[in-house]
């Protein structure tokens, strides 16, 4: 009888140890569960601040539609924008005013603002990612196929801060689009930014220019100016005799540059990423 009691007690203790061990393991696992399994939770504050962004697409029946510049989401749900547009064959500045946006708990949202240069109320949907540091963008106006990405360059209530020195160093870049009389082009190469003794921005680089499947190596020399708001403009000549103007927006503390051509009939855009 005593032996039976001892055996039952031993079994009970074993079961208790197994239960406690399993419960502790499950608690630790729950506490350290990957954040990807947690439900998203966003507010307007999550998606607030000033963002550098670029978008690319088409205005149906017209031609290319490119956007390069800034938008600012405020925590009270108001917003504005300041961009350079390419619409068809034209390139022009286009402030966006009187805007509003709303971020839903699931980190999706929508917004709208007025662009007087287009006589249009621009509408868009977005998804907040990377803790609010990135916003995926989709235009929702009828007849427009346009999407892109924004990267936060200043927190809500703070102003962006850039200068020519922000983008010193070497970058690799890729561009695509169209130029006059050439409906498909793609470009890939490198450039190196430096400043002279007056802090003027200069650069040199090389790339491969693909025009409708025909490849041309190029050597490029240019200048650039970057404003305090992290938007800039540049100019360069290549060894083929071309002279090219462009605009750009700097994000990620200078590690990424959004690039866009700025000459009539040119609809070319892409990204540059710092090598060193």
Distance between the termini: 80 Å
Percentage of β-strand residues: over 45%
Helix-strand string = HEEEEEEEEEEEEEEEE
Number of separate strands = 16
Mean pLDDT across every amino acid position: 91
Which strand order does the major sheet show? Answer: 1-2-3-4-5-6-7-8
Describe the sheet with the most strands: 8 strands, antiparallel, barrel
Q: Which residues form runs of ≥5 with pLDDT under 50?
A: 8-25
Q: What is the count of DSSP helices, taking H or I runs of 4+ residues?
A: 1
Query: What structural category do the secondary elements indicate?
Result: mainly beta
Q: What's the helical proportion of residues?
A: 10-25%
Q: Based on CA inertia axes, which overall geometry fits? A: globular
**Estimated radius of gyration:** 26 Å
Q: What distinguishing features does this structure have?
A:
1 helix; 8-stranded antiparallel barrel; 8-stranded antiparallel β-barrel; mainly beta; globular; 276 residues; 16 strands
Question: What's the layout of helices and strands?
Answer:
Blueprint: H1 2-31, E1 49-59, E2 63-73, E3 78-87, E4 90-103, E5 108-115, E6 120-129, E7 134-139, E8 144-154, E9 169-179, E10 182-195, E11 201-211, E12 214-226, E13 231-238, E14 243-251, E15 256-261, E16 267-274
Antiparallel strand pairs: 1-2, 1-8, 2-3, 3-4, 4-5, 5-6, 6-7, 7-8, 9-10, 9-16, 10-11, 11-12, 12-13, 13-14, 14-15, 15-16
């Amino acid at each position: 009888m005593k032996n039976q009691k001892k055996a039952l007690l031993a079994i009970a203790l074993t079961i208790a140890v197994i239960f406690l061990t399993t419960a502790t393991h499950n608690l630790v696992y729950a506490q350290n569960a990957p954040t990807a399994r947690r439900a998203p939770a966003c507010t307007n504050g999550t998606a607030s601040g000033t963002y550098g962004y670029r978008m690319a697409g088409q205005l149906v029946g017209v031609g290319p539609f490119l956007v390069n510049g800034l938008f600012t989401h405020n925590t009270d749900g108001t917003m504005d924008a300041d961009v350079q547009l390419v619409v068809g064959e034209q390139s022009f500045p286009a402030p966006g005013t009187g805007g509003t946006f709303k971020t839903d708990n699931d980190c999706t949202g929508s917004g709208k603002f007025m662009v007087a240069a287009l006589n249009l109320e621009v509408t868009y949907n977005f998804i907040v990612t990377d803790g609010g540091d990135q916003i995926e963008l989709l235009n929702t106006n009828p007849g427009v196929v346009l999407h892109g990405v924004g990267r936060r360059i200043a927190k809500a209530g703070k102003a962006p801060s850039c200068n020519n020195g922000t983008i010193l160093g070497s970058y690799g870049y890729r561009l695509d689009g169209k130029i006059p009389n050439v409906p498909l082009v793609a470009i890939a190469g490198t450039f190196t930014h430096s400043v002279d003794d007056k802090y003027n921005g200069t650069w040199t680089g090389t790339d491969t220019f693909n025009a409708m499947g025909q490849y041309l190596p190029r050597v490029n020399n240019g200048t650039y100016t970057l404003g305090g708001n992290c938007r800039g403009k540049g100019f360069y000549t290549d060894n083929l005799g071309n002279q090219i103007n462009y605009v750009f927006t700097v994000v990620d503390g200078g590690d990424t540059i959004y690039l866009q051509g700025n000459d009539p009939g040119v609809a070319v855009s892409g990204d540059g990423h710092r090598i060193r």
